[in-house]
Amino acid sequence: MDIFMEKNNKKFVFLICFLLLMTGLFGDNFRVAKLKSIEIPKDYSPVTVNVGLNEGLFLKIPKDKTFIQGFEFEIKIPKIVATYRDSVIYTFYSDVSPEPKENLIDYSGKKLMVDTIPPRLSINLQTFFENNTKTQKSPYSTLLPFTLSENQENLAIRFQMAMKGVPESFFSSEFSITIKPILKDEGLLSINLIYPETEKETETETDISVAKGNISLFIDDNVISDYSKPILLKTGTHHISVVSEDYRNEVRTIIINQASNSVLNIELKSISPELTIVAPANTKVFLDDVELVTFSDKISISPGEHTVKFVIGDYELTKTVFIQNGKSYEVSLLVDINVLESSN
Fold it and tell me: What's the rounded Cα separation, in Å, for the pair 107 and 94?
């Protein structure tokens, strides 16, 4: 009698699968008691939902797939379902419409695959977008026999009975489904170059204008021709270099984290040389014979030969300095006291 029932159940499962496949040829309309809808959080954290028999789960695929290469479905199977082999069928659909609503039971979509729940307590299923198809098989997951298109908006999974003669408690069992995005090992870097400010030399405008010179930007010794938008980089440490004849060269190191948006601000400095003067209080300082009212701050100076003169009372000291672009100079007046000791 048991052998007879097992044969009949197998025939019934085969018939159900055949009918489902035939239905897919002529229109993928399906009915569920409930279709639960979920979205992937902005931080890409996993989402867990309980789904019962004759119910389904609707995944709304994010429009921004910059960091997403696929999805993983970890399904925990109720013990009673695992006990009755081939008792439940699961089906994947894409392009499901309309969007799930409460009390709505009829939907349509493109059928992607049909299979029976295996006699295990859990299964791990993975699918990838077309341009990110996984090539290596994993012992811990099963690669689904379909890929996702880049413009795909949703993906749904549905559970339905495929066997008769099961206990009444069977129908109240639920599948715990955890969906998490499979992330690329990459992150985005936005580079903001902050140029030196120069005042507009007009009578009516006193706003600050930005003087932009020619620069070359390198990331890990690779030239970046367009850095006006975020740059996709592998996770890890990267070296950024800014090389220019109009500004001082800048070097930065940054760590890119997975699925993150990093911002690097680089303040460019003019190659115009700077002069710092250090002298005691009450010292008169002349730069090229022009007395400085104050010399506590750095002074922008043109390249070439310049003369710095210090006057303290009746004493006068003069120093000539040859100034070059891209360098900083400090001219200091050192006052010291010498003590000489001699024997009578």
Answer: 11
